[in-house]
Specification:
mainly alpha; MetI-like fold; 14 helices
Amino acid sequence: MAEQLAVNMLKPKKRSQVKSIWLRYKKNKLAMFGLVMLVMMVLCAVFADLIVDYEADAVSQNMKIRLMSPNKDHIFGTDQYGRDIFARIIFGARISLMVGLATVSLSLTAGAMIGATAGYYGGKADNILMRIMDVLLAIPGLLMALAVVAALGPGLVNLIIANSITRVPQFARVVRSAILSIKGQEFIEAAKACGTRNTRIILRHILPNAIGPIIVQATLNMGTTILGIAALSFIGLGIQPPTPEWGSMLSDARSQMRYYPYLVVIPGIAIMLAVMSFNLIGDGLRDSLDPKLKN
């Protein structure tokens, strides 16, 4: 009875905290602009099949309408194979957002496990795990992703694995630092005194209280992940043709960019807007979750 009463007393507090975070976030106009851009991209990616036809517009070649400048029938024009650029941009957004979300989720899970273990137990476990993370951080992310993709081969799954490995150390260090600042507090000591298992303490008490920095890091990593996906696809080690992807669209347009610059400009703007939206959202979340940082 007492436990249920305590849970009921906490519910309004959680709602008010979320509401206050949202109110602080709304005051940041740039963050709201990033959120609006992201929502529009997500809606276009989700409902892409209702907007354009994948096979007819984004994949099938039609040499009769190749290299058409933007017009009323093809608002972004067509590429050197007669494919509609607008359709390829929309379906490319689906690929980039899906791979980015899968990459961040996988790296966040692995990094949270490593960081939580190192931060909570300390000692030799902390030294060993963090030195491994330091070694991974010493290798440039793109170079490591290139090595992994070159070893496993190009493809969607291998692209996710390669980008995930490069981002695990960042999440591990963020989670570790958050846990080090929390694990010495009274409610953790009380949970230990009650005989609560270490795994339960980490999952139910420590990680939920460290969720703020983790969310910010995940949001900012989405932008860098999209850049990494585009970079690997640009050099032919990412998403393979004819699947539309922004980086591969830039690569295909290199030979035509002098006379048909829109082939390069439009995918480049799509990448820029996607990365900028996640960066703006991440900055807004950082200020909303911890107003002291802004002050």
